[in-house]
Batch of 3 targets.
Target 1
Amino acid sequence: MALKKARRAGSGAELNITSMMDMMTIILVFLLKSYSTQDISVAPSEDLELPVSTVKKNPQMAVNLIVSKKNIVVDGVPVLSLEKVDDEDNPGQKKIQVPEDQRNGQLIDALLDELSKKADTAKNIGQQSGSEEHAFKGRLLIQCDKKLPFEVLRQVMYTAGQAQFSEFKFIVYKME
Amino acid sequence: MAVKRRSMEAPDLNLVPIMNLVTILIPFLIMAAQFVQLAVIDSTLPAIGAPQPQDEEPEKPPLNLSLAITDRGVTVLGADAILHPEGAPEVSEGEARPPTIPCTSGGVCTSVEDYDWNKLTVKLGLIKDEYPDEENVILVPDNHIKYEVLVKTMDSSRDDPSKPGAEGDPRLLFPFVVIAGGAK
């Protein structure tokens, strides 16, 4: 009825956008609050659930190593897949492990190659820039699924150690 | 009557351009928003090579504090003199030593919450009282210990939230963590 009247008057029906404006303003404030310029982003997925910790230190940029339930990824490049096998110690349960043909004792060959390449690149950059700030310090950011057994983590750390990464930074969710 | 009211009212503000701006800003901010805060735990590889020769004999023997994490609980190693002033508990031959901090359920820990983290923090506080300058702790986890248990152990040994330290922060215990390879 009102519409008819308005059309008859010659002007289009006016939308009341004040309430929408109110809503938008609230959303805007909320989003500005959660705006962040952190270097590192985590893509949450079913296979990568980070643990929660009380630590307060902020992450810095470094070589990024992701160990999820399914695979190992270095700086976005998948390096190898993990397998799920029957656990000999706990019959009936599965455990995640690095496939035996992929590793040499503790050493994961494919990961060593990839990390050594990264270390060499980082060293080159450090040399060419000549500044202390960009020098290779052997820092490695590790994102690790919280259900992963220590055995896999130890093999990963050992391999990283062989590739001259010695400073491990475990990425965790900050407790609110 | 209606005419009179219109002349009194302020003219309507044109909100459409602001709406346009806000609508563009929102998708951009959603992309940049981070809904989880990240943090890092520092850890280093154990030093490889011969230990540094020490020039002078330290007054106190160095504390080699280690935490062995198994599915039966956490065992504090290297500080027997503080934890057991009357002598270490007797363990018969061939039997594993019971953990210093057993699981709350008594037997095998099934989840992270099963470990007695508060008790661990208290025990480490006692050791810190004796060795105020010591800041290192070595973790020796069992092979199938889950990563989240490891992180929780590091949390419990880092600081004691129940006791205030300097500048209102919780009292620092052993913030420098070294993860040992474990025996294999």
Note: Residues 109-129 of chain A form the longest helix (21 residues).
Target 2
Amino acid sequence: MKTIDTPKNKTFKKGSKQSNMASKMLDNKKAIFAHFRGEITSEELNAQGIKLS
Amino acid sequence: MHKASSSVKHYSYTRTSSQFATIFEFTTDSGLVYGVYFVGGEKYLANNPNYRGFIKEFGFDIISANHSSDVPTRDVKVKYTILAILKEYVDNNIHSSIIYVCDYSDGRQQKRSGLFNRWFDEAENSEYKPDVPITKYIIPVDVENEYGETVKTEVVLLNLETCLFSKEFVSYLLGN
């Protein structure tokens, strides 16, 4: 696997689409695992724009 | 549901697929239950409907921890199982690139990033190397944690050369 590191001095700042993407991805991960643990329903997951089945 | 064959190196796992997602689960010798998911990721790329099916969001974590307190915390079979799942998924979805974020909710994102990157590097010379060429892009970002502090983490794009939109994904994720 070829790896390409974006230079550290090119860190995308808060408010950038990349930063917003990271935040949203983490929120989605938390929601998906809350669903796996039975803490939220499929409907609640769907309401967050996440479809599993 | 598919039951994968077990091997010495990794745990056996189950796979559940729908038109929206593929979910894997496995249980470690110490009783930890892990979940691994691949779900549609086009929503992160300007919600472009043309990208549907070509970009997947990946993540994994512990679902439950019904284990005794004297079990070792390091379990190399977890690494091999994640790599086995990634290989199986990539080999069966050669047109889908993959994105994930290094979880920063506990402040350990840099360690997580280093560990996961090492796993990938090790996979290169092992039975867990995917069959298709992949370029891994590591994209550093500033994010706000739950305490309102700015911290650094990384978004990672595993870009499959066999993905129709691989160039577009790179352009979008590295562009302003």
Note: Helices of chain B lie at 76-92, 109-123, 166-174.
Target 3
Amino acid sequence: MTHLELENLASEYLEGRLDVVARVEVEAHLKECGPCRELIGDVRHAMELCQSAEELEPAPWLISKILLATIGEKKPSFGERVAAFFRPQPRMRLAYGIAMTVFSISIISNAAGLNLRHLTFEDLKPSTWIRRADSTGHMMLARAEKFYYDLRVVYEIESRLRQFRQGAGQGNGREQRETPKTDSPGGGTTDRKPPEMPVLATVQDVIDASADINGNLFSPAGARRSSLR
Amino acid sequence: MDDDPKLVMRCLAGENSAWEVLLKAHTRKIFNLCYRFTGRPTEAEDLTQEIFIKIFQTLQSFDEAQGTFATWLNRVARNHLVDHYRRTRRDRVTSSLDDEPGTMQETPSPAAGPGAEVESRERRELLQQGLEKLSPDLREAVILRDLSDLDYDEIAQVLGVPQGTVKSRINRGRLELARVLKRMEVMKGPAKAGGAT
């Protein structure tokens, strides 16, 4: 084998593509020829250098630049648009709208007496909604009215009690003014009487007063009077 | 890569997302091919963009029966690079090295320290300078075989020459590159030794 023949087979020999006969011939030549051994070593080194070369990273904006040059401004797909819609963003108006919608639905369903967890076919009829809303409305009105009368009763009891206390206080004062004081004016002693407690209404007084108020409020005359006010 | 023909069909149907997928899958390879061919990052980026614009415009001419999409892409890229080489031959004689090869970033290896990084950069520069010394025919054969890792059959399709010619070009390219690298290392050796003293 000549030097030129070996040169022509160098790549195939290094890649292991030669058949057995050719490989034996090449190896025999290499054993005897120093310059060819050196050449094969250099080619192997060059191949290794190429194969060990790592890939380079293009600039990050290159793909965007090419996309812009080919398809223009990228239009978002339907999926991307949907994802963008649901992506959490500070959209106060949308949040307020959703909150108000939920609130309105809950109010309407409450008023219509709907149980959203156990919906029946009957619940879907608008006539049922109206009937239930009417019933609920009347019930609320009645409760409000009752609450108002209860408040009035409590107020009346309180005002009567206040009057009783004041009356009792005035009676005691009058008695105190009429009886002369026995204490020495200069004092000097330490065993003074504790001040007298105000006289409270007795239980019987309260019962009488509440019976009187109830009679006034719930008797037809009392009711008429209160409605006129 | 197996999905490339389907992606091409979807591209032709007007689906932009398919084109984006194709682009992302092949940009790096084509950019590397351009960089190895030109040795200049900005030029390689421009060429990559031009190649993909050409691909986009001629996508309907891709025929799966004649080879894979990657082979077709490489063929278009190679033809574009050859055209570019011929077009800019005159400019290149007087051009200055305005792009530093060292400005490029390689994919970092996990355990690469500063020393390994310097060594890797030196090897890359050496290889790039060696490749630039080769004739375009030999250079493209070596790049496609040893850097782009294509097999002989694919290279023959890309270059449009018989497989025997491909083998011959690859062999001659490697021999030439080995000689050039040796010369460069010999020249660098004394300089390094001188610098050390």
Note: The mean pLDDT of chain A is 78.
